[in-house]
Design goal:
The structure holds 2 protein chains of 2 kinds.
Chain A: E1 4-17, E2 20-33, E3 37-42, H1 48-56, E4 64-66, E5 69-72, E6 75-76, H2 82-90, E7 93-96, H3 100-103, H4 110-121, H5 126-139, H6 145-148, H7 158-170, E8 176-180, H8 188-205, E9 208-212, H9 216-222, E10 225-230, E11 233-239, H10 240-245, H11 250-258, E12 309-310, E13 317-318, H12 324-338
Parallel strand pairs in A: 3-9, 3-10, 7-8, 8-9
Antiparallel strand pairs in A: 1-2, 1-4, 1-5, 5-6, 10-11, 11-13, 12-13
Chain B: H1 2-7, E1 11-23, E2 30-43, E3 48-53, H2 59-66, E4 74-79, E5 82-83, H3 89-95, E6 96-99, H4 113-123, H5 129-142, H6 159-171, E7 177-181, H7 189-206, E8 209-213, H8 217-223, E9 226-231, E10 234-240, H9 241-246, H10 251-258, H11 299-303, E11 308-311, E12 314-317
Parallel strand pairs in B: 3-8, 3-9, 6-7, 7-8
Antiparallel strand pairs in B: 1-2, 1-4, 4-5, 9-10, 10-12, 11-12
Helix pairs in contact in B: 4-5, 4-6, 5-6
Classes of the chains: A alpha/beta, B alpha/beta.
Bound molecules: adenosine-5'-triphosphate (ATP) (2 copies) and magnesium ion (MG) (2 copies).
One adenosine-5'-triphosphate sits between chains A (15, 17, 22, 24, 44-50, 60, 98) and B (156-160, 188).
């Protein structure tokens, strides 16, 4: 029987800025089961990192969070005091941050930083903590791990720093890992090894994994389900096969045309793109936020079209007022009109 | 002399090595770490050379050497055939601009985007200061940022937005050579495709030369004319991109290409067959430094370092190439 590790319902983040109220996350819902991998993809700036920081209680001070539900292992954690949140964070729920340099403290050795949470949560015993740190550094592919413990973050390459972050997140055998771009700075062979390691730990500890990434190759290969975000909303969600084989939202369809695929795209050929830029999410917002970039947009989209609607096949849903068939019909008639 | 200048590569290293002394812990002294070890690389004018390889193999260190930010311990760097020793910092900066891997630490958090993007113009005092604002707006537009973001600070922007800022800053000088260290790894794929299309356009329009460091082999395959594969401080394979991708010669290159994840949900994550013996640059393996992880390792590989062997402009450093195998 599957058990839900994390359930989020209607998560909203607002940040007051000089020009008004910014709405970077506007009603996101999802859940992760034990042993399950949820991948979140979407345009840079669409609110992926803020969504994960919101779940961890790590939003910037000025940000305001609202949720209908934020359940970890079935218990509401939305109103936990910071002291208890911080206990959860180092232990049962851990995060691999997008920016290794800002989350590693330049003034401490990586050994101290690796052992800190473990000694706080698991055991004060320095030797045990040290053994676990060395074990995990080796697991993430860092050679002569013992001698790396005394190095400082600036002495490591980008990829080594990122692997230190991954090892740090695994120190206390978490039940949920939120990983924000964990493998972007790594070469593909190490990426493959780390993805195997995460899968292995998932099997062993039934760990839930939320992975935020731009790499659609990684998503295709490891996700159970996928959530596509745009401008602070979920525009499409579903099982991984459905997303890659029958992408439904115009944004998802555009994304899949953007990537060079060896053997498919020609060298030097122009890649597909999603022209236009993300709308300003300040102040009152109305209508579908993707409409200024959508090839299918009509006047109706100015007022409607952001609710997720199920597609015929079970868990697959998209946020567009028109069905795939309707869009095809509209496009066909507009090409006729143009001729 | 003129002729030499025409055929000389835009950028060239001749047997460059770079050694760091790394502390071994409290009271344990230091040991040398050979981050790059005898690298000779040529970047022909107007071409894109892709540089790929394991994390920590020395790619960024090589980039820093090329940018004049890090002095090589031995060896020589040449710009269009002239030794870099003859160039001032400023000369180098006007010729070569970097786009760095980490958009978080490479932007000054206390400066506005306008100030960050216009910084190279100010430092090198280029053109009329009254035109700087217009140049910044134009650059922001090119990299797909709204002009209102000029007054923002880096902390108010997402990772991808910051990388666009870094690209705008590099290109505002209209340099001849751009060293891109993971230029798109923080970007979502829709911005990545715009930036790759943009880099391609600028290359054609301005005759730019790129050294493109990336872990994304699909991106390298898409853009690069030539590819160099680095392993533990050395270039172990180098050649025309189509040849290297279609016919990799070095076992490490093969493993690398096999690990590429194409977006196919029917496939899982491939096994790398590289084993868990990760190389340590402080204490590199004997013989061929790749031998402890190599599926095709022979006896000779443990004792003797292979020499570079070229045919048809395609080089690999591997005993399999030498006929030493028999
Ligand atoms: N502290 C802040 N103050 C004001 N705006 C912010 C702040 N942090 C983030 N934002 C804005 O909120 C939006 C969402 O940011 P977020 O970092 O969640 O994006 P993201 O989806 O993780 O992007 P990327 O893929 O580039 O990392 C962006 O437009 C960003 O500029
Ligand atoms: N200032 C330094 N002091 C000591 N060692 C260093 C220093 N800078 C780099 N190194 C070491 O040199 C080696 C090469 O580092 P470099 O950053 O060039 O790797 P890279 O190929 O760019 O890796 P990545 O793909 O992870 O960015 C690494 O082992 C790193 O730890
Ligand atoms: Mg982010
Ligand atoms: Mg690097």
């Amino acid at each position: 029987m599957s058990e839900t590790v994390l359930e989020v319902e209607n998560l909203t983040v607002d940040i007051p800025i000089a020009s008004g109220m910014l709405h970077p996350v506007r009603g996101i819902s999802f859940s992760v089961q034990k042993g399950e991998t949820l991948c979140i993809v979407g345009e840079s700036g669409c609110g992926k990192s803020l969504t994960s920081l919101a779940m961890m209680g790590l939003l910037p001070k000025t940000a305001q969070r609202r949720t209908d539900k934020l359940l970890f292992r079935g218990e509401e954690i939305g109103d936990l005091p910071e002291r208890q949140m911080s206990k959860l964070r180092g232990g049962a729920m851990s995060m691999i941050f997008q920016e290794p340099m800002t989350s590693l403290n330049p003034a401490y050795t990586i050994g101290d930083q690796l052992m800190e949470a473990f000694r706080r949560h698991v055991t004060r015993d320095r030797a045990v903590a040290r053994d676990r740190a060395v074990y995990l550094l080796e697991k993430v592919g860092i050679s002569s791990a013992a001698s790396r413990l005394s190095q400082y973050p600036h002495q490591l390459s980008g990829g080594l720093r990122q692997r230190v972050m991954i090892a740090m997140a695994l120190m206390c055998e978490p039940e949920l890992i939120i990983a924000d771009e964990p493998t972007t700075a790594l070469d593909v062979t190490i990426q493959a090894q780390i993805l195997h390691l995460l899968a292995e730990l998932q099997d062993e500890f039934d760990m839930g994994l939320i992975l935020i990434t731009h790499d659609l190759g990684v998503v295709a290969r490891i996700a159970d389900k996928v959530q596509v975000m745009y401008a602070g909303r979920t525009v499409e969600e579903g099982p991984v096969n459905a997303i890659f084989e029958e992408p439904a939202h115009p944004y998802t369809q555009g994304l899949l045309r953007c990537i060079p695929v060896p053997g498919k795209t020609k060298r030097g050929e122009r890649l597909g793109s999603v022209p236009g830029i993300v709308p300003n999410l300040v102040g009152d917002l109305e209508g579908c936020m993707f409409r200024n970039r959508c090839p299918h947009a009509t006047a109706e989209c100015d007022t409607a079209g952001e609710q997720l609607a199920k597609l015929s096949s079970g868990d697959h849903a998209h946020a567009c007022i028109r069905s795939l068939a309707d869009r095809a019909a509209i496009d066909a008639s507009s090409t006729k009109a143009a001729e | 002399m003129k002729d030499a200048e025409i055929i000389a590569p835009a950028l060239e290293t001749d047997n460059v090595s770079c050694v760091f002394n790394v502390s071994q812990g409290f009271m344990k002294g230091t040991k040398p770490l050979r981050a790059i070890n005898g690298v000779s690389l040529q970047v022909p004018k107007g071409e894109v050379v892709g540089l790929v390889g394991e994390s920590g193999c020395g790619k960024s260190t090589l980039a820093n050497v090329l940018l004049g930010l890090q002095a090589p311990t031995t060896g020589d760097v040449r710009y269009s055939g002239t030794s870099a020793a003859g160039f001032s910092r400023k000369d180098v900066a006007r010729r070569i601009q970097p786009i760095f891997q980490d958009p978080y630490s490479s932007l000054n958090p206390t400066k506005t985007i306008r100030s960050i993007v216009s910084q190279p113009l100010r430092i090198h005092n280029v053109g009329d200061p009254s035109e700087w604002d217009a140049k910044v707006d134009e650059m922001l537009d090119i990299v797909g940022l709204p002009s209102r973001s000029a007054n923002n600070y880096p902390s108010q922007m997402s990772g991808g937005q910051r990388q666009r800022v870094a690209i705008a800053r590099a290109l505002i000088m209209r340099p001849e050579i751009v060293i891109c260290d993971e230029p798109t790894s923080a970007l979502d794929v829709s911005v990545q495709s715009q930036i790759l299309n943009l880099l391609q356009d600028l290359k054609d329009e301005l005759g730019l030369t790129y050294l493109l460091i990336s872990h994304n082999l699909a991106v390298v395959e898409h853009l690069a004319d030539r590819v160099a594969v680095m392993y533990l401080g050395r270039i172990v394979e180098e050649g025309p991109a189509d040849k290297v991708f279609a016919n990799p010669r070095h076992p490490y290159t093969k493993a690398l290409l096999e690990s590429v994840l194409t977006p196919d949900p029917k496939l899982g994550v491939p096994e790398t067959h590289l084993g868990a013996v990760f190389p340590n640059p402080i204490d590199p393996p004997s013989g061929c430094s790749f031998h402890p992880r190599c599926v095709a390792c022979m006896d000779i590989c443990k004792s003797k370092a292979p020499r570079p062997i070229s045919s048809e402009g395609h080089m690999a450093e591997c005993h399999l190439m030498e006929g030493d195998a028999q």
